[in-house]
Amino acid sequence: MIFIIDSLNLREHEPLVKDMFRLRKRVFADRLGWDVRVSQGMERDRFDDLDPAHVISVDDEGRVVGCMRLLQTTGPHMLSDVFGAILDGEPPLRSATCWEATRFCVDTEVLTGGRASNSISYVTSEVMIGAFEFAMSAGVTDAVAVIDPVMDRVLKRSGNAPHGYLGTPKPMGKVTALAALMDCSEERVARIRAFSGIDHDVMQPHRVTA
Amino acid sequence: MDIIDLSTVDTSDENCLEYLDQLCAQLGFDYASYATTSPLTGAVQGYANYPDAWKMHYMRRNLHRVDPTIHKSALSIAPVDWSRFDRDERFHAVFFAAGDFGISPQGLTVPVRGPYGDRGLLSVTRACSRAEWDKLKRAVVGDLQAAAVHLHDAVMRSDVISRALRQPRLSAREIEVLQWVAAGKSQMDIGDILNISHRTVEVHLRSARDKLGTLSIVQAVGRAIGLGMIYPR
């Protein structure tokens, strides 16, 4: 199930958010070897202090198994700052209808292969559906996502191929990072749903929409 | 939207109010307002086309200090429906009397963030059924996003220091795509020429438009020519 958590409803969901920071530490610090700040077993950076929205996937046992962070590209965001190298020195996008997605990850330690609801593929699709539906409700038409080549391949295989890329892939820790563009549209959500077999509403009952 | 282009006129109070009036008329809202806190001076700047009696009431009671549409909405990256606010003391302080002035508590606030940490808020209201409201929101939320960033940028440009900081910086790709638009090519053609998808062309065009502070792609081409970024065909 997907929770959209921002600075408006953060206080109701603090345990989930802490678990999300712990998942991000396991993925970005431990597995991918990115140069990220870790404290008390959690990975947090200054963009988490800029009131982003988090898309969080929680499994049936209440564990945080996937997440993504969203920021407006009109304001400060990672591509305009720390990931500038990916853009080869070019100025970043700035658009009221394009959000930036960063820290996109799933828990490969507890999730399995295959297509079941505890699989990497299922949770990846669920996070993407949640993010795109939230974006559409906000009038946002596109997203630029900072991802690694493994995630890029997962997206291409799951009916969710990027429609373009910005700049060129750059080494980051043990992997490379690239900036992929995806439209936030009914068509894309339908393709992800068809691939993943997710035909139910993924959002938690007290959903956040614009 | 056929609406006043604030990048072509002085950012005067009259023009900002005219912009809000036209926005309401075009999109079907009762009232609209805009507020920002300057990151340089801390001063609050705002415009609203509410009835004068309500504006007086609001100012006399300093309701901006407790107004959740201001203090809560700035924390979101997405437009915030006022139904999301707790019906607490602060909400009632603002909205209890609003009804007497013909102001509906049914509204939406679109938060804008600028590159220097500045934030702006465009709010709209309309008294109608919930179903009608939801339908209206879905239909115009994209237009509201574009309108909010346009108005916010116009207000930010209106002070001299901000204007100096805000020379638009377009990427080589954005300039290339605008140059092809100036040459009369369609998004589809441009995608083929540059070997990128037409959707990616659209993302570059919208970004260039927002950076140049214009409302349409055609105006963006004109502005880019004016700034010497691209050449007329």
Automatic annotation (TrEMBL), chain A:
<dbReference type="InterPro" id="IPR001690">
    <property type="entry name" value="Autoind_synthase"/>
</dbReference>
<keyword id="KW-0071">Autoinducer synthesis</keyword>
<dbReference type="InterPro" id="IPR018311">
    <property type="entry name" value="Autoind_synth_CS"/>
</dbReference>
<dbReference type="InterPro" id="IPR016181">
    <property type="entry name" value="Acyl_CoA_acyltransferase"/>
</dbReference>
<dbReference type="GO" id="GO:0009372">
    <property type="term" value="P:quorum sensing"/>
</dbReference>
<keyword id="KW-0949">S-adenosyl-L-methionine</keyword>
<comment type="similarity">
    <text>Belongs to the autoinducer synthase family.</text>
</comment>
<dbReference type="Pfam" id="PF00765">
    <property type="entry name" value="Autoind_synth"/>
</dbReference>
<dbReference type="GO" id="GO:0007165">
    <property type="term" value="P:signal transduction"/>
</dbReference>
<protein>
    <recommendedName>
        <fullName>Acyl-homoserine-lactone synthase</fullName>
        <ecNumber>2.3.1.184</ecNumber>
    </recommendedName>
</protein>
<dbReference type="GO" id="GO:0061579">
    <property type="term" value="F:N-acyl homoserine lactone synthase activity"/>
</dbReference>
<keyword id="KW-0673">Quorum sensing</keyword>
<keyword id="KW-0808">Transferase</keyword>
UniProtKB/TrEMBL annotation, chain B:
<keyword id="KW-0804">Transcription</keyword>
<dbReference type="InterPro" id="IPR036693">
    <property type="entry name" value="TF_LuxR_autoind-bd_dom_sf"/>
</dbReference>
<dbReference type="InterPro" id="IPR000792">
    <property type="entry name" value="Tscrpt_reg_LuxR_C"/>
</dbReference>
<dbReference type="Pfam" id="PF00196">
    <property type="entry name" value="GerE"/>
</dbReference>
<dbReference type="InterPro" id="IPR036388">
    <property type="entry name" value="WH-like_DNA-bd_sf"/>
</dbReference>
<dbReference type="GO" id="GO:0006355">
    <property type="term" value="P:regulation of DNA-templated transcription"/>
</dbReference>
<feature type="domain" description="HTH luxR-type">
    <location>
        <begin position="163"/>
        <end position="228"/>
    </location>
</feature>
<dbReference type="InterPro" id="IPR016032">
    <property type="entry name" value="Sig_transdc_resp-reg_C-effctor"/>
</dbReference>
<protein>
    <submittedName>
        <fullName>LuxR family transcriptional regulator</fullName>
    </submittedName>
</protein>
<dbReference type="GO" id="GO:0003677">
    <property type="term" value="F:DNA binding"/>
</dbReference>
<dbReference type="InterPro" id="IPR005143">
    <property type="entry name" value="TF_LuxR_autoind-bd_dom"/>
</dbReference>
<keyword id="KW-0238">DNA-binding</keyword>
<dbReference type="Pfam" id="PF03472">
    <property type="entry name" value="Autoind_bind"/>
</dbReference>
<keyword id="KW-0805">Transcription regulation</keyword>
